[in-house]
Write a structure and sequence with these properties.
Number of domains: 2
Radius of gyration: 24 Å
Distance between the termini: 37 Å
CATH topology of the largest domain: Transposase Inhibitor Protein From Tn5, Chain A, domain 1
CATH architecture of the largest domain: Alpha-Beta Complex
Number of helices: 14
Mean pLDDT: 86
Low-confidence stretches: none
Order of helices and strands: HHHHEEEEHHEHEHEEEEHHHHHH
């Protein structure tokens, strides 16, 4: 696994400062520059880096893409896309209106910007490789009047905000040229006719949740056509409960149907595009009656789905969307809390947001590496000094019984992830549910304090 760092910035000093911030973000797991820095001088240097016009968002995204591209050679990968807004409204009196922020979907209480990352994972192990592309943009500061739908439809696709899906997909193809296969996964917003025409090729496929009940050739409707297909098979899945939504834990039986379909362009699609596109449609529908919020997905894909195993594979790939939702969760309230940043310039917050995204990849590497059988090198997440400190922690964290001993070798990243998870509150029993992202987050925060004491003790003992 490639180390997450910058390699390409215009100035060596900026390069070193950028990598220092990345390391501090991972080690400290906080948004505050004052708390990231060890002194006032270092804090000022970090502020200058984030405000420096010689370090653009494009520079940071280019480095992120390069880190990702270096990991995917001859691999089949999933590219999961989604959009989230960063709302800075609570700091509206302090944030400078510098053209990098604007209104958001929150209406009158929305002030900030949007991010649209393309998260890349190994299609077999789900090991994260990074981000092939990240779109960052903002609307104007004035709340725009609702456009008439007819006028919006008349606009070229390149002038619509929804073009972000197509642009990210095309950029992803350029970055991941060494991958053997690319499956781009998107929610309903990605159900855009132009995208099905422009993005797929021999090794690039789309897997998108259907947004609308499209008209098919023969005047059939997509949703009714799918529901009328013969049942191809079923599978069962355990669904977690949600107290907030009054949903109880349950075992669900999912019925699977699929069919080849041909969708058609509408009057607003550009005349240069094909008038028809052949795709495959999959329906995953929970069986039973009187079920609250039953599962019911309709997926469109350019992958050939002619047998049940491929249909099940596509459904499984689509469920991986939860991973990018976890990324947003750690970026915001339950993690770095980027929306609470004390920075006063929109452009600086946007750069810090991108660097946080790159740091979050390390958290997912830890989670996935701990859940897989294949070993990962410890250096992919920790420095030699940190590994030395963690070894000392392991001696303290191990229990008296064999069940509470660390079972992994020093050449395996799992050995040190075990220690971080224990620091985060995990009990240490292998029979327990594996530690999650939040546990690692808490463990890293605690380890940061321990590491500071370790360095202080080491420096004093060497005098």
């Amino acid at each position: 696994m490639q180390t997450r760092h910058f390699e390409d910035l215009k100035d060596k000093r900026l390069l070193n400062r950028g990598n220092s911030i990345l390391n501090r973000l991972f080690a400290n797991s906080i948004y505050s520059i004052r708390q990231l820095a060890s002194n006032d001088s270092e804090a000022k240097a970090m502020y200058r880096f984030l405000q420096n016009d010689n370090v653009s968002e494009g520079d940071i995204v280019k480095n992120m893409s390069s880190n990702c591209a270096g990991c995917v050679e001859r691999k089949s990968v999933l590219c999961i896309q989604d959009t989230s807004e960063v709302n800075l409204y609570n700091h509206r009196n302090r944030i400078k209106k510098d053209g990098y922020i604007g209104t958001t979907n929150a209406g009158e209480g929305g002030l900030g910007f949007f991010i649209h990352p393309s998260l890349v994972l190994d299609s077999h192990t789900l090991m994260p490789f990074g981000f092939a592309d990240v779109k960052v943009w903002n609307r104007g500061l004035e709340q725009a009047l609702k456009d008439r739908s007819h006028y919006k439809n008349m606009l070229p696709i390149e002038e619509k905000e929804s073009y972000k899906w197509i642009a990210s997909s095309l950029n992803t193809k350029k970055v991941l040229t060494k991958a053997s296969e690319i499956i781009i996964i998107q929610d309903r917003e990605g159900d855009i006719y132009e995208q099905f025409c422009l993005v797929p090729d021999a090794k690039t496929h789309l897997l998108v949740r259907a947004k609308s009940n499209r008209s098919l050739q023969g005047k059939q409707k997509l949703f009714e056509h799918l529901s009328n297909q013969p049942l191809q098979g079923t599978y069962t899945v355990e669904l977690e409960g949600d107290k907030r939504k009054n949903l109880k834990k349950r075992m669900a039986t999912i019925e699977v149907r699929f069919s080849e379909v041909t969708i058609s362009a509408n009057q607003y699609n550009h005349k240069s595009l094909p008038r028809h596109m052949a795709l495959y449609a999959i329906e995953a529908r929970e069986a039973g009656k009187n079920i609250k919020n039953p599962i019911h997905w309709r997926l469109l894909t350019t992958k050939k789905v002619e047998a049940l195993p491929m249909a099940l594979q596509c459904i499984e790939w689509y469920t991986c969307r939860w991973i990018i939702e976890e990324v947003f969760r750690i970026l915001k309230k339950e993690g770095f809390d980027i929306e609470a940043s004390e920075l006063s310039q929109g452009k600086a917050i946007r750069k810090l947001c991108l660097m946080m995204l790159e740091t979050i990849i390390k958290l997912f590497i830890m989670q996935i590496a701990y859940a897989t059988e294949e070993g990962t090198e410890p250096g992919s997440c920790f420095s030699e000094e940190e590994l030395e400190c963690l070894e000392a922690q392991i001696a303290q964290l191990e229990g008296n019984t064999q069940k509470l001993k660390n079972p992994y070798k020093p050449t395996d990243l799992k050995r040190y992830i075990w220690a971080i998870a224990r620091l985060g509150g995990w009990k240490g029993y292998l029979s327990e549910r594996k530690p999650g992202i939040t546990t690692f987050w808490k463990g890293l925060q605690k380890f940061s304090s321990i590491m500071q004491g370790w360095i202080l003790f080491r420096n004093m003992s060497r005098r």
